[in-house]
TrEMBL record:
Residues 1-22 form the signal peptide. This is Carboxypeptidase. One of its GO terms (biological process) is proteolysis. It comes from Tagetes erecta (African marigold). The keyword Repressor does not apply. It is an enzyme of class 3 (hydrolase). Its EC number is 3.4.16.-. GO terms for molecular function: serine-type carboxypeptidase activity. It is found in: Secreted.
Amino acid sequence: MDASNLLLFPLLLLASLSPASTLRLSDTRLPSTQAKKLITDLNLFPKHSVNIVDRHLTNRSRSKIVEKPFKFPNFIDSDGVSVEDLGHHAGYYQIEHSHDAQMFYFFFESRSSKDDPVVIWLTGGPGCSSELALFYENGPFKIGKNLSLVWNEYGWDKASNLLYVDQPTGTGFSYSSDKRDIRHDEQGVSDDLYDFLQAFFAEHPELVDNDFYVVGESYAGHYIPAVAARVHQGNKAKEGIHINLKGFSIGNGLTDPAIQYKAYTDYALEMGIIKESQYKRINLIVPVCEAAIKLCGTDGTVSCMAAYLVCNGIFSSILSIAGNINYYDIRKECVGSLCYDFSDMETLLNKNSVRQALGVGDIEFVSCSTSVYQALLMDWMRNLEVGIPELLDDGIKLLVYAGEYDLICNWLGNSRWVHAMEWSGKEQFASSSEVPFEVAGSEAGLLKSYGPLSFLKVHDAGHMVPMDQPRASLEMLKRWTEGSLSETARHPESLVSSI
């Protein structure tokens, strides 16, 4: 055992003895229980923990492209649009460099112009289907009464050609017959998504010249920088089809854990969730957390699990004080174990008529995968900020946005890692003015930008900004992709955050 691993045991011991920590190895905050809680808090109860199937028991043959236009059987539209008119597609791509991974996606052509950017949306979890965003945040539809679907006035397909991908493999309708396709790090995740994108653009050559953006939220704060870097690397190496990458955006994400976990107590104190005495007590565990994360960055195996256990003691200590607070939106309370009710999505996508329309056959829908969650535990405390400076210096745009009432991936921690990032424009970004982000004559947020980097604190929103502020989020996407994010700002204001 090397020296770094020897340090893990005293770290864990200190954490368990700390008056701030409630961490125990038999605790309900262990990874397996945390994964289940993540799912049940959303009122989701997937039948399977992951989509690993027996190839001999499915009706599918191994093929590269399975895509079809579709129309949801319960879609309500007074104009009676046809499948062809909708421009909605769903299907699978075989992931080339996998054992047998089949990645499912929805693709919605822009309602405005086919020249609009191509935007891929990635939901976090880790292990939650991107259909969560499709139906509850920024997709073309909202789920109405009796599982009917109605147009979303602020769907992001009004400004982009929009892709939702079930990933990593095993999530949603994506599946494999080989357990080796379950990913454990961002190298595997980003390689799979690069293969997916190569297959997508091969099938849709008419979109190859469109601007391309990678967007998502939550644990996708890990996925998004990794995928953007992988695409950029592929372009530089001329590996396959050139993907016209223009930018990437992280919404309420987990990107730099060392900075973001340290911000938990500051945010909780600032928002009145904890008192000063509790703040001081919980902060005793912060140095232990930082040391564990540092070991994870250099060792990367057992130390990463130790960092996960130690650092989540900070978050769980805050929650033990806050009670039934909704940690995705501190303005709300969780009723029992229910923080949101996304069960209609799960019911809808498991209906036989819907599965037939989508062409998924006998594949079950896994709304959130506990197996994928646990497989990525060694990835959790990795710092994904490290690859971003090169992208910025090469002119690839980054927008980090965060709803102000989210606790779990709060705006303060996100603001701090963005400001701390070492890149060529660091000083200029730090000294730039913060300005109002105005939508329809009202201030919807506070924006700070320099060159390719922008940070937006969104007012009156929690973890899921497009759900809480649909109009503002659509405007954000439009202006950012058009290069006019701060266009309506008028009067510079002093920086609100404490950096």
